[in-house]
Amino acid sequence: MSETRHNWTKEEILAIYNKPMMELLYDAATIHRKHHDPNTVQVSTLLSIKTGGCPEDCGYCPQAARYHTDVEGNDLMSVNQVKAQALRAKASGSSRVCMGAAWRNVKDGPEFDQVLEMVRTINKLDMEVCCTLGMITENQAHRLAEAGLYAYNHNLDSSEEYYKEVISTRGFEDRLETIDNVRKTNVTVCSGGIIGMGEAIEDRAGMLVALSTLNPQPESVPINALVAVDGTPLEDQKPVSIWEMVRMVATTRVVMPETQVRLSAGRTQMSQEGQTMCFFAGANSIFAGDKLLTTPNPDVNEDMKLFELLGLNPQKPFIKKMQPKTVEAEDSQYKDLGEKPKWTRPSHTIERNEVKKQEAKQVKA
Ligand code: SF4
Which family does it belong to (predicted)? Predict the structure, then answer.
C-alpha cells in the first residue's frame, strides 16, 4: 500500500479522499511513518524578492497588476538584503529559503543574474535554496542549478480542467513544461496547489493525479488553503474547513508517500489542533515567517511553541539530498541566451477576472 505508484486514477484518489476520516488518518499516518520521521518537520522561509505588478491574471493573487489590492509593489531586492533575511531565517530555525518573484517568466539579463547571485549567496550559508520565478527555459534551469539551487517551485494550482477557470493568461501545459525543464537538472521539484478556489473535489483529485503521475513525483508538494484577498476575483470565497484540509493532506501523503507535504498558505485560519491533525495526516513541512509572499502567516515564535508542545524538531538542511555545489558566475558553462520563448497565451477570458480588472480601472481613474 505504501509503494510509490505513478498510475493513480482520479477514481482511486477520490475513493481515498472520501474514506471515513479515521481510516484515512490511519492509512496516511502509517505511510508517513514508513517513509519519514514523524517527529521532524521541515521549516522554510518564503521571501518575496520582487513583489506585485505581475502581468498574469491568477484569480487568487493580490500581486496581479490588473486587480486593485493593498499590495505595495517592490523592485527586485538587493543580494545583501536577501542575505540579511536569510541569516535571520536560519537563526530562527529555517533550513530553506524560498525566493518568490512576481514574474510571468524569467527573462535573461541583469535581474536574472542578480537572482543567480542570491542563490549562490544563500547556498554558501549552508541553507537549501528554492526559487519560484514563473516559467523557465531549460537553459535557465541549468543556470539556476549551477548557481546551487536546491528546489524550484512551480505549482499546478488545480486540475487541468479547473485551471482554466482561475487563470487565463497561460496554459496548464506551460506549467508542466517548466517542471520538465527543471527535471533536466539536479534541482528538485516543488509543485502543489490551492484548495478553496470554488473547485469540486474531483478537481482536487485531478490535481493529485497530475502530480502523482509525474515520474519522479515532486520532492515537495505544497497544499495551500485559499486566503481570499479583497480586490481579487476570488475575494468572496468561503474559507475551506479544517476537515477538507486534513483530507487533502492525508490523500496527498497516501498517493505521494516519499514527498515532503508542505502545509502552506491558510495556516493563520487553522487552530493548533487543526495543524496537529495535518501533521498527523502526513504534512511534514511548513512555511515560517509572518508573511507568505503577501498574505499573513503565523508568527515564527508561535510555530516554535507549537513544535515544542508537540515534540517536533525542525529538519536539518540537506537531509534528503546533498548540498549542491555552487559555480561562480565567471566559471559558468551556461550562457545568457537572451531567448524569447513562446509560452502559451490562451484566448479564453474569465468573466470574474475581467470584472475585477474593470473595477480596478475605475478605482485608479
Ligand atoms: S500567482 Fe504568480 S504568476 Fe500569478 S499573478 Fe501572482 S505573482 Fe503573477
Answer: Belongs to the radical SAM superfamily. Biotin synthase family.
Query: 314 falls in which pLDDT band (50, 70, 90)?
Result: very high
Q: Which of 96, 131, 175, 190 is catalytic?
A: 190
User: Is the CB of 157 inside a 6 Å radius of any atom of ligand 1?
Assistant: no
- What crossing angle do the helices spanning 10-17 and 242-255 adopt, rounded to 10°? 130
What are the pLDDT digits (tens) for 21-63? 999 999 999 999 999 999 999 999 999 999 999 999 999 999 9
CATH of the domain at 166: 3.20.20.70
- Which residue minimizes the CA distance to atom 2 of ligand 1? 102
* Sequence ranges of the binding site: 54, 58, 61, 98, 130, 190, 262
64 lines ligand 1 (CB under 6 A): yes
User: Is residue 174 in contact with ligand 1, taking CB distance under 6 Å?
Assistant: no
Structural domain containing residue 357: 41-240+287-320+335-364
Torsion of CA 37, 297, 263, 150, to 10 degrees: -70
Summarised one tens digit per residue, pLDDT across range 167-179 is: 999 999 999 999 9
Question: Is the CB of 58 within 6 Å of ligand 1?
Answer: yes
Question: Of all atoms in ligand 1, which is nearest to the CA of residue 54?
Answer: 8
In a domain, residue 330? The reply is no
Cβ atoms of 131 and 81 closer than 8 Å: no
Task: Kindly report the pTM of this predicted structure.
Answer: 0.95
Count up the domains in the chain and report the number: 1
Residue among 2, 8, 65, 5 nearest 207 (CA): 8
